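Running this now, will post back.
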Amino acid sequence: MPDSIEEQKWQLRREMRSLRRDLPQERRDQAANILIDRLAEIVSNHSYILSFMPIGYEIDVFWINLELALWGQLALPRMAETADGKRTLHCFHVEQPWSQLEECEWQPMYEPNPALCDKLDPKEISLVLVPGLAFDGTCHRLGYGKGYYDHFLSTLTKDTLCLGVGYQELFVETPLPLEPHDWPLDGLLLT
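Update: finished.
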């Protein structure tokens, strides 16, 4: 068993990436459809909703993002580099995801084009859909190890609802290894 919390996290990341990658396409499609139904009950009570663009084998939120855009609620993250070389997450209102996104320079995904989308103050976000590699019963998540979401979540108002989103297979019974910067979520939407 790995000694440090960091080593435990890296081992769990490898295991969960493999588990997620090996899910059959039929199971992935089923989970995405269930997520659409479950979110339909929630989104009408919110202003801007920060979703995400899936990377790797994350749950497909394409149709959810299109619906949110049509309702004027879609916000998506974009990473920006600070003066000291760190990356930080910023939110942008996306009205037309088919024309307002561009390829990310450092990761195989799409993000808002800042020339075409309005930047949002995090206080304007009322619901955040947070991806992850694993989730536990205390609503903690295991991300990819850079801390972008943990830092961002710590800046939100107490009224902002933060939900972990992913496959139910990513739920782990034992508590995740935690470090002081790991930020808990308000709930989980695992399908």
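The first strand starts at residue 48 and ends at 50. More later if anyone needs it.
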